[in-house]
Amino acid sequence: MAKNFNELADRAKAAWSDDTRRVYEAASSEFTAEVNERAELGTVLATARKARSLTQPALSELTGIQQAEISRIERGAGNPTAATLLRLADALGQKLTLVPANR
Length: 103
Known about the structure:
This protein has a single domain, classed as lambda repressor-like DNA-binding domains (434 Repressor (Amino-terminal Domain), Orthogonal Bundle), CATH 1.10.260.40. Helix 3 (56-63) packs across helix 4 (67-74). 68% of the residues lie in helices and 0% in strands. By secondary structure, the chain is an all-alpha fold. The protein is elongated.
């Protein structure tokens, strides 16, 4: 009997076909990359906000974006729209730029 989730997951994975394993590994890699990108975006936003000596509530007032959403974005837990990012960038005197992916 499995003692914990990891043992149970390892047992299930042992029965996977090579195709299933490849799909899982690709999806896992994409998910990890997205989580890392969101965390990086949050760090950039928090750094820009602090450089302008703004609190999250002050930035919320400037942008009309809820403070809770700003917090989620800064923690890497948010999924902001392009419109939200543009409003934040504008309020922080920043430019939003698209760059080629490194994948």
